[in-house]
């Protein structure tokens, strides 16, 4: 369920009904032949010193921001809220969208739309999920050797978007 309707399932149900009956394929097989993209949501969370909160996944060698992949029929914002609750045990009210970034296929991972939301200021966050081995508050310069270059570019854009109040669109972390 989307974050917009997370507190009001009845409103979500009404919106679904208002759309009318499910769309049928005019030409059978067209929909199933379309590529499938993945989608992820994450949060730019800072501490009171302005450092960025990174999670330390136990299943990969690089740091990441709190968030994760969407599930079926889940919005990027709802996925971000769910993942923060699972990973950090926190219920956050996300601020505005900061960045939409497209990332190309990478090994086994399909290309992906990545959304970064303003996660606000949280001091003293701790890992709450066994898939994490910890958390770290770092400046972007400190984090640079510990994260993918595309994530560094995406977060640099997210900080700029936060400061300017204007969301950014990027491809592989580069604003276009």
From TrEMBL:
Presence of keyword Hydrolase: yes
Keywords: Hydrolase, Magnesium
Domain of life: Bacteria
Gene3D superfamilies reported in the protein's UniProt record: Nucleoside Triphosphate Pyrophosphohydrolase
InterPro entries in UniProt: NUDIX_hydrolase-like_dom_sf, NUDIX_hydrolase_dom
Domain Nudix hydrolase: 35-161
Cofactor requirements of the protein: Mg(2+)
A Gene Ontology molecular function term of the record: hydrolase activity
Listed SUPFAM superfamilies: Nudix (SSF55811)
Name of the featured protein: NUDIX hydrolase
Organism placement in taxonomy: Bacteria, Bacillati, Actinomycetota, Actinomycetes, Pseudonocardiales
């Amino acid at each position: 369920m989307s974050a917009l309707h997370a507190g009001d399932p009845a409103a979500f149900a009404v919106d679904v009904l208002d759309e009318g009956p499910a769309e049928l394929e005019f030409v059978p097989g067209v929909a199933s032949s379309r590529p499938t993209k993945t989608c992820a949501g994450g949060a730019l969370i800072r501490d009171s010193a302005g450092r960025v909160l990174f999670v330390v996944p136990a299943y990969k060698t690089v740091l990441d921001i709190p968030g994760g992949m969407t599930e079926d029929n889940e919005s990027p914002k709802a996925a971000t809220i769910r993942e923060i609750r699972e990973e950090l045990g926190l219920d956050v009210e996300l601020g505005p969208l900061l960045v939409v970034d497209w990332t190309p296929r990478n090994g086994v991972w399909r290309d992906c739309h990545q959304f970064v939301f303003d996660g606000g200021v949280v001091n003293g966050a701790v890992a709450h999920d066994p898939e994490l081995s910890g958390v770290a508050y770092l400046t972007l310069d400190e984090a640079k050797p510990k994260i993918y270059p595309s994530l560094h570019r995406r977060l640099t854009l997210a900080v700029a978007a936060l400061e300017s109040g204007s969301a950014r669109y990027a491809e592989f972390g580069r604003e276009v």
